[in-house]
Write a structure and sequence with these properties.
This protein has four helices and three strands. It has 110 residues and is α/β, with parallel strands linked by helices. A three-stranded parallel sheet has the order 1-2-3. The model has no long low-confidence stretch (mean pLDDT 85).
């Protein structure tokens, strides 16, 4: 997800939304990645980052780690299948993936 988002930003995108309506669990690596992407997007002029319709379990986790007020949360209807994009489940660059994990764990501290 991070690699895809970084490519979109490199292509000029300024708004990034992550739909969490079907997400049932977020670990520390995923939360750190969301924080990293939020900061990356918001450094851009007119950059905006939001979480879309987090599931009740995701909302509970965000509250437990005091991040519910850090992220903009938008409730929306589920998008049409044609506007969704499924990302590969295996990283193409395993070295970069490992670096991303380390960085994701450092992100909450910064």
């Amino acid at each position: 997800m991070r690699q895809f988002a970084e490519q979109c930003l490199a292509d000029g995108m300024t708004v990034l939304s992550v739909d969490l309506r079907r997400c049932t669990h977020m670990d520390s690596t995923f939360l750190g990645t969301l924080l990293f992407l939020k900061r990356l997007v918001e450094r851009r002029e007119e950059g905006r980052f939001a979480l879309i319709s987090p599931s009740s379990r995701c909302r509970q986790l965000l509250q437990q780690v005091a991040l519910e007020k850090v992220f903009a949360i938008i409730n929306r209807e589920e998008p049409a299948t044609s506007v969704r994009r499924e990302l590969p489940s295996e990283p193409e660059d395993k070295v970069a993936f490992k670096c991303n994990i380390v960085q994701a764990h450092q992100e909450p501290a910064s």
